[in-house]
Amino acid sequence: MPSKTDLRRHFRRQRQSLPPAARQRAEKRINNLLKGYLKRGKRLAIYWPIGSELRLDSLAAAARQRGTELYLPYIEPRRQRLWFTPFPQQGRPERRRQGKLNIPQFAGRKIRIHNLHSIIIPLVGIDRRGYRLGQGGGYYDVTLAATRHHLCPHKIGAGFACQETDILPAEEHDMQMDVWVCENGIRRFGKTADDRR
């Protein structure tokens, strides 16, 4: 099996090579499918897209209209475990995370992952068992591991169909996504059967 570094390179290249019109159609379809997870008064974490990652602008706008509380990941300096801060109505980032990812960080009352109802998790790749390949920073792995003895929010992987593969290397601590949403539909993992809409 190729190394994780080679796999990341492969999936990023796949994502970057999507023609603009196809990307636009796919993003519209995925955002529309994700809107099914918006519930009034519930707390949903999304992510701030970096580079060629799936954009969630339409979902964020719909969440505000439907009364879903949106959160973004917050990286504490020299810590792996994520906090989550309220998605800004508007405003400037409090700071930017140092390093190649340059992720905007927003101020606000921080909560931990077990206070969320659902979380949309960015990924570089995902396999047919529901295991994801992340950016390599380990932030989501450490954060998800902290839910093992708490209530874990519904874990939603979202991205493009070209990021899907048969099998990825998975370690003992890796946690399956509950759902994978791409332009081809929704796939549920675990006890429920495959569901394509």
Question: What does this 3D model show about the protein?
Answer:
This protein is an alpha/beta fold. 23% of the residues lie in helices and 21% in strands. The protein has four helices and twelve strands; from the N terminus they run H-H-E-H-E-E-E-E-E-E-E-H-E-E-E-E. The protein has a seven-stranded mixed sheet with strand order 3-2-1-6-9-11-12, with helices on one face. Strands 8-7-10 form a three-stranded mixed sheet, covered by helices on one side. Strands 4-5 form a two-stranded antiparallel sheet.
Briefly summarize what is shown.
This protein is 23% helix and 21% strand. The protein is α/β, with parallel strands linked by helices and 197 residues long. The strands form three sheets. A seven-stranded mixed beta sheet has the order 3-2-1-6-9-11-12, covered by helices on one side. Strands 8-7-10 form a three-stranded mixed beta sheet, covered by helices on one side.
User: Could you list the spans in which at least 5 consecutive residues all have pLDDT below 50?
Assistant: 192-197
Shape: globular
Decide which structural class fits the backbone. Answer: alpha/beta
Please trace the helix and strand order, writing H or E for each element.
HHEHEEEEEEEHEEEE
Q: Give the N-terminus to C-terminus distance in angstroms.
A: 31 Å
Helical content (DSSP H or I, runs of 4+): 10-25%
Q: Major sheet: order of its strands? A: 3-2-1-6-9-11-12
Q: Could you give a short account of the major beta sheet?
A: 7 strands, mixed
User: What is the averaged pLDDT score?
Assistant: 89
Q: Could you tell me the strand content as a percent range? A: 15-25%
Radius of gyration, Cα only, in angstroms?
Answer: 16 Å
Number of helices: 4
Compute the number of strand runs.
12
